[in-house]
Design a protein that fits this description.
The protein is an all-alpha fold. The chain has 14 helices and two strands, in the order ααββαααααααααααα. It has a two-stranded antiparallel sheet with strand order 1-2. A hairpin with a 7-residue loop joins strand 1 and strand 2. Keywords: Cell membrane, Membrane, Transmembrane, Transmembrane helix, Transport.
């Protein structure tokens, strides 16, 4: 039955409503622009100036970026951030895949509660997490106390004051935080795999290991991409964990780019260099996440 509206008039009416989706998007775009794009643009502007944050500024062009790649302490901080990627991303992914595969193959009562407990570190403020682990790592803390109780007193040490073990100690906190997130993501992905695929693999003579690599792993590549993206970003932008536990010490053994941005801008008063470090860190994060997503899409 005809609606009685001429095609030309209907097209005009539809074209007249073309602005409606943009009206719905406008508030989110405004918030995104004000709180993300504008600060990034201002940081990029500051990175071309020598400025202490208060007085007059002097245009220096790309000098601040040259200093980023010539400053040994800043390069060391970026190196520490890449080390933390192993603890925040690679290690949680390996543990998460293993635990999720075991849980997916077995019947676990109260799995929903178990998922909630695993995810709890994600909803606890990182400052609270850092304070708690600082107490655990203290010379008279839980970790050293447990080692003494087990007769392993020779392994005790000031974990956050040892040049060799401080960075891994901080990194393991990130492992604890990120593992639950990865397990929940992997369980969600594995839960969508049809059981018929596992049955077909068993009929072909596949054991548990071959099932994992032939069926499970390819099916959760999307979740792996998401997990890697989230955890690598968390590793590269780590600030509060380092600030609360070590403040970059002992010496400079746990400095990271975000902490250096804070220290250079607010303690030293070199805002231009701090802004340049922030822009470089942003570019590094964008490049890494782009590569990860491209590889994930091709897979």
């Amino acid at each position: 039955m005809s609606s009685g509206i001429a095609p030309g008039r209907r097209a005009t009416r539809l074209s007249g409503r073309a602005w409606v989706p943009y009206a719905y998007l406008a508030p989110a775009l405004l918030v995104y622009g004000v709180f993300l794009l504008f600060p990034i643009a201002r940081a990029a502007q500051f990175s071309f100036f020598d400025w202490d944050g208060i007085g007059e500024s002097t245009f220096v062009g790309l000098d601040n970026y040259v200093r980023v790649f010539q400053d040994g302490q800043l390069l060391e901080a970026f190196g520490h951030a890449f080390v933390l990627i192993f603890f925040f991303s690679i290690l949680p992914l390996a543990i998460g895949l293993l635990v999720a595969a075991v849980l997916n193959r077995s019947t676990v009562k109260g799995l929903g509660f178990f998922r909630t407990v695993l995810f709890l570190p994600q909803v606890i403020a990182m400052v609270v997490v850092a304070v708690a682990w600082r107490q655990i790592y203290a010379p008279d803390g839980v970790l050293n106390g447990t080692l003494r109780a087990l007769g392993l007193g020779n392994l005790t040490r000031p974990w956050l004051g040892d040049y060799t073990f401080t960075l891994p100690a901080v990194g393991l906190v990130g492992t604890w935080v990120a593992t639950g997130l990865v397990i929940v993501l992997m369980l969600a992905g594995m839960g969508r795999i049809p059981r018929e695929q596992y049955e077909a693999a068993r009929l072909d003579g596949a054991n548990s290991v071959r099932e994992f690599f032939a069926v499970t792993l390819p099916a959760v590549r999307g979740e792996i991409t998401v997990a890697l993206t989230l955890t690598i970003i968390a590793a590269l932008k780590t600030f509060d964990l380092v600030y609360v536990t070590t403040r970059g010490g002992p010496g400079t053994s746990t400095t990271v780019p975000s902490y250096e941005i804070y220290r250079r801008a607010f303690e030293i008063g070199d805002v231009g260099l701090a802004a340049a470090v922030g822009i470089v860190l942003t570019i590094v994060v964008l490049l890494i996440t782009t590569v990860i997503n491209r590889i994930g899409d091709r897979s």
